[in-house]
Amino acid sequence: MLIFVYNADSGLFNTLTDMAHKIFSPSTYACQLCKLTYGPLSMRTEWRDFISSMETGTEFLHRDEFESQYGCTAPDLPVVYQKHAGALRLCVSATEINDCTNIAQLKSLIQSQCL
Fold first, then answer.
1. Mean pLDDT for the stretch of residues 92-106
2. DSSP for the chain, written as a single string
3. Closest C-alpha to 64, from 110, 100, 14, 115
4. For the segment 62-88, what is each residue's pLDDT rounded down to a tens digit?
5. Cα–Cα distance between 61 and 31 in angstroms, integer?
6. What's the predicted TM-score (pTM) here?
7. What is the pLDDT of residue 41?
8. Is 6 exposed, middle or buried (0-12, 13-18, 19+ CB in 10 A)?
9. Which band of pLDDT confidence, cut at 50, 70 and 90, is reported for residue 38?
10. By residue range, what is the domain housing residue 46?
11. How many domains does the chain have?
């Protein structure tokens, strides 16, 4: 299973704030994973198709959900963890995600390091 952890918190207010931030000031948006995989309102089709094509399970969590569910804080976000036998292994770091400028780069990174 792959666990994608966004550099954003859950909740309606945070979602609305994030949507506005992406529209009005995208260059200062703090979550590159969100920016690459979501448009202002929904998941990008290319990303949805990629996730659907993977043979492993996926879980998408906001920062606060990850901390609550796994009882730990990721050092830098966003990240992708691989979960196997209950243990988490970092497979894509925040630095690597933040260096991606498009979905193709992110997909390549995940394919080479997580699958």
1. 97
2. -EEEE-SS--SHHHHHHHHHHHHH-GGG-S-HHHHHHB-SSSB-HHHHHHHHH-SS-EEEE-HHHHHHHHS---SSSSEEEEEETTEEEEEE-HHHHHH--SHHHHHHHHHHHT-
3. 14
4. 999 999 999 888 779 999 999 999 899
5. 13
6. 0.86
7. 78
8. buried
9. confident
10. 2-113
11. 1
